[in-house]
Design brief:
It is a single chain. The chain has helices at 63-77, 108-121, 134-140, 156-162, 174-187, 209-215, 237-246, 259-262, 291-294, 296-300, 307-313; strands at 15-16, 24-34, 90-100, 124-129, 146-150, 192-199, 219-224, 253-257, 267-269, 274-278, 285-290, 304-305. Strand 9 (267-269) and strand 10 form a beta hairpin. The chain is α/β, with parallel strands linked by helices. The strands form 2 sheets. It has a 10-stranded mixed β-sheet. It is globular. The chain binds iron/sulfur cluster (SF4). Iron/sulfur cluster (SF4) binds at residues 39, 41-43, 46, 48, 101-103, 130, 150.
């Protein structure tokens, strides 16, 4: 439990991987709800595979259960909830719910209803999509703060090898994505657009500069494939650095995440309403009990979380201490 000194378990607190006593500040705490495992794509490295042993259905299917989860998450992580044990290590001023999957837009009206409930509760909201349902994105865009689009390549053969296509081989093109983003901005001029790229063995030599310029996101997150469910298609640190270097000249705010930046640095909830966390240096996830059943306090104390790595991701949003 105490290998390399962390994670540390203190009574009633989440298992924190945090080496010193200073309280970190971040603008926004992000809770990622992976609302469904269902997806119309079949990316080989996909992280959206959760333990099957639990027979409970995915929570989104029941309005009562999904609202109970949202309420409990908001109560526990609300910036006003001073008793949250995480506050011993980290402070935040707003709370964002990031709805991911699987592919959340496949849930149609239920997805839209969940976004509405979350907004009513007070969450800021982001949605992560593979861009295959622009009709649903056009409907939801006016209600959300950030749209995250997963894009690994603009080369059809590379997308096909990764599995970033429907079973019939249908893919979204660069101009499809640009159009979807334009529509979203028309419906919500305040929306932040973020592109997410997973760097793997298939796209490692790709130059995405043209794609990024055409789409013009506000942010671009570049992640080294984390071998959570498979090591196939993983890349070395050096290969990843070369990819990052190749794109240094693209003038967009970039967030670079190597494997160590992703370990225990996300607050994540699975489709069955459990916190889960990746195993450091290993395959698979660790799970808490179900949040609406035992409460977020107990469930969050059952998983590890590293506030220092989390806040590093948003470091450029954190004001200097004492700044007005
Ligand atoms: S689009 Fe996302 S959820 Fe779907 S298979 Fe690919 S990585 Fe998994």
């Amino acid at each position: 439990m105490f290998s390399s000194g962390f994670p540390v378990k203190t009574e009633g607190a989440p298992r924190m991987k945090y080496p010193n006593a200073n309280i970190l500040q971040t603008d926004e705490l992000v809770v990622n709800w992976h609302i469904t495992e269902a997806c119309n794509y079949r990316c080989q490295y996909c992280y959206a595979h959760w333990e099957k042993a639990e027979t409970r259905p995915e929570l989104w299917k029941s309005e009562t259960h999904s609202v109970a989860l949202l309420k409990e998450l908001y109560r526990f992580f609300s910036p006003e909830h001073q008793a949250n044990p995480l506050r011993r290590y980290l402070t935040w001023r707003s709370l964002r719910l990031s709805i991911a999957g699987g592919e959340p837009t496949l849930l149609g009206e239920r997805f839209l209803a969940i976004v509405n409930h979350a907004r009513e509760l007070g969450f800021r909201i982001s949605v992560i999509t593979n861009a295959s349902r622009p009709d649903v994105i056009a409907k939801v865009a006016p209600k959300i703060d950030m749209l995250g689009v997963s894009v690994d390549s603009d080369v059809a053969s590379i997308n096909s090898t990764i599995g970033r296509e429907c079973r019939k081989g249908t893919q979204v093109s660069r101009s499809d994505i640009a159009q979807m983003v334009e529509q979203a901005r028309l419906g919500n001029p305040q929306i932040t657009i973020k592109l997410n790229t997973v760097v793997c063995a298939e796209n490692i030599s790709n130059d995405l500069s043209g794609l990024i310029r055409e789409i013009g996101p506000d942010r671009w997150k570049i992640m080294r494939m984390l071998p959570v469910t498979t090591a196939q298609m993983s890349v070395t640190k050096k290969q990843f650095s070369q990819f990052v270097l190749r794109h240094q000249g693209v003038s967009v705010r970039q967030t670079i995440e190597d494997n160590s930046d992703m370990e225990q640095s996300y607050v994540m909830v699975d489709p069955k309403g459990r916190f889960f966390q990746n195993e450091v240096g290993g395959f698979g996830y660790k799970y808490s009990e179900c949040i609406p059943t035992v409460g977020a306090d107990q469930a969050f104390s059952q998983i590890a979380f590293c506030p220092a790595t989390f806040s590093k991701r948003y470091a450029d949003l954190v004001p200097e201490v004492g700044a007005k």
